[in-house]
Amino acid sequence: MAKVVELNIHPEPLDAFGMILPLTLGFIGAGQMAQALARGFVAAGLIDARRIVAADPVVAAVNAFCEAIPGAQAAAENRLVAERADLIVLAVKPQNAGAVMADLHGHLGREKLIVSILAGVKMKTLAAGLGADRLIRVMPNTPCLVGMSASAFSLSEGATPQDGELVANLMSAVGRAFAVDEKLLDAVTGLSGSGPAFAYVMIEALSDGGVRMGLPRDIATQLAAQTLKGSAEMVLATGEHPAALKDRVASPGGTTIAGLQALEGGGIRSALMAAVEAATRRAIELGA
Fold it and tell me: Which of 2, 115, 163, 264 could form a disulfide with 74 if both were Cys (CB 3.0 to 4.6 A apart)?
């Protein structure tokens, strides 16, 4: 069980830990995304785990967080995180945002940088609810855990260019990060925020197809996952349009074009577009 401590953050100088960032990082909300980000930052060598602190009303979540990030500290309440951390990540469920903002209102000085990963919760809502204006909204995704996140972020008027650079460096250390207008963050949520789940369904379905054709399950799953990984890397590395890369694989009268016809018959394009649209609309609803 994680020990709730009085946040005895180590004051040693930067090079004592070999860190890049001389700050204390706080998470309010210790769920899966908070864990993924914290583990990713530690794995990338950005911060020592002993400079990470988290609070969550669900004790099991804090315990899991501290077990996943050995050395991280647990706080008994949100305000302790706000008091001690230099950069505070709001990582609760959007439905709980109101209660958290009310709890923190008036306890966040200008020296604190607040980063929100709450889907759909707008900057103006955060500013009013927290009584703070040094804010950055980020929409990450869970592959940050393996250094392959696709994220986007947007700065409030109260955030400085240096704040934006800091967050860009953090997110770039665990994948690719893009600065966008806030109005586009709901679409980012629908595409890359929810996208890993869509990709997992595709991997599972391809694996099922391989099993149906006689492949052992473990081999089929690894082939499917590596195929999506390699194909994605081809798009990123070459900069070519996916359609052009697809056409190179599909030779006349061959196996691939037969498979593509089956996909088109099943409406795969329409289904994936609808999935992104549905997830985006839900993000908008959460922020309403």
Answer: 2
Give the DSSP letter of residue 2. Answer: P
Contact 126, 101 (CB under 8 A): yes
Between CA 61 and CA 218 the distance in angstroms is 31
Rounded to an integer, what distance in angstroms lies between the CA atom of residue 258 and that of residue 246? 13
Spell out the residues 6+ positions from residue 247 whose beta carbon is closer than 8 angstroms to its own.
Answer: none
Strands (E), the chain: 25-28, 52-55, 73-74, 87-90, 113-116, 135-139, 149-155, 175-179
Whether residue 210 is predicted with pLDDT greater than 60 in this model: the reply is: yes
pLDDT at 62: 92
Query: What is the spatial distance between Cα 223 and Cα 259, in angstroms, rounded to a whole number?
Result: 17
Tokens 């600065």 -> residue:
179
Give the span between the Cα atoms of 133 and 114, in whole angstroms.
Answer: 9
The secondary structure of 251-281, three-state, reads CCCCHHHHHHHHHHHCCHHHHHHHHHHHHHH
| Residue type (1 letter), 195 | G
**pTM of structure:** 0.84
- CA-only gyration radius of the chain, Å: 21
Type of residue at 13: P
Which tokens is 67 given? 């077990």
What would the pLDDT profile of 77-113 be if each residue is shown by its tens digit? 899 998 889 999 999 988 888 999 999 998 888 789 9
Q: What angle do the packed helices 195-212 and 268-286 form, to 10 degrees?
A: 150
**Cα 34–Cα 38–Cα 43 angle in degrees, nearest 5:** 150
Asked if residues 221 and 207 have their Cβ atoms less than 8 Å apart, the reply is yes
